[in-house]
What does this fold into?
Amino acid sequence: MVSASKVEGEYSLLSKNSPLDQPEGVKTHLYHLSAGHGNDSLKSFACSEQGGPILLDTILLSQWDNFAWKGHLDYDVTACQLKVIEGGINFVGQLNNKWNSFSPKEYDELFESFSSLKPNSMKSYEGLLFCIAQGEKERPEVAPLASPPKDGLLLIANAYPVEYGHIFLVPTTVNQLSCYWDERMFRLATKIASEVNNAAFRVFFDSGTPVVSGRKFFQACYFANPLPVESASTVVVYDGNARLDILVSETVDYPLKALVFTSNNLKAIAHVVSEICISLHDNTTAYSLLISNNGTKVFLFPQVKNLVTGCFLSAWECGGYFVYHTKSEFDNASETEISNRMASASVQDGAFEDLKHLCCAIAARSC
It folds into this structure.
């Protein structure tokens, strides 16, 4: 269980029982990331005092707890039964008969209002927690927002959470070049993971998720323990760019093929992964992303569609975390069944080798 703490001092933070006000019109509070996250630095100024709680993490958890306290969640995800599935990989299963793959489509009207800047009552959008954008000052700031920023991410609570703190991160405006991918938004997502600065916080992206109002969106939530893929062994594929300090590896002895990008340079990791994602999209290859380790590690899972279900694995399923709707499915879950399911979604060896060569080429020319 991840808990929130109230921060005292120069920041005006409100507790669970005192939610951020959302006045009439398209308004919400805006969190400006510290300028230390504007380029390559990982240095965070987002704590109230030395060793104190992290500002962004505290606001996010407080706002999500307030949303839950008001009764907007369909269920208490912290009460769902969990188990580690017997075997060497330690897959995790959750029993949850109420979960569904909810998307923020019900917020279409809200997104359209942000795009057109038309006034609209916020009373129907309790799930809108706040907005995050890049700041220009050394320390982070929280400020009222009269009109949405052009390059921000809306944080919206998921009423059907997979885990504690489950949110959607949705761009405030549509990228004029493509509604499919925006490197700026991906970079912002990695910076958010860095400034949250909580090892339990993971960000996800699924290329197969339907577009909402012309927007692709990220998701994020808190996992108390490392996901199985994060504990998987890896071998280095590329480490030749000393200036960018980026390392590309592949997982071994894991049933779903995956590439792992590691770097303390957030700008570099966002650029390299973005270039690869655009190439995958151009080749109609589906994939999922997992951002972990405070934004410094990105897992890329290329996929093929399951011929039986007609679906792709979600990013948390790629990571080894599965939700079961019935007690019998939960009780009968096995490492063999999950491994077969993941292997059926994995790309062929030849395609994966081509992807590794592509990754090396993109990382090399980014120096």
Q: What stands out?
A: The chain has eight helices and 15 strands. Residues 77 and 162 are 7 Å apart (CA to CA). The helical segments are 55-69, 108-116, 183-196, 266-282, 315-318, 327-332, 335-345, 349-365.
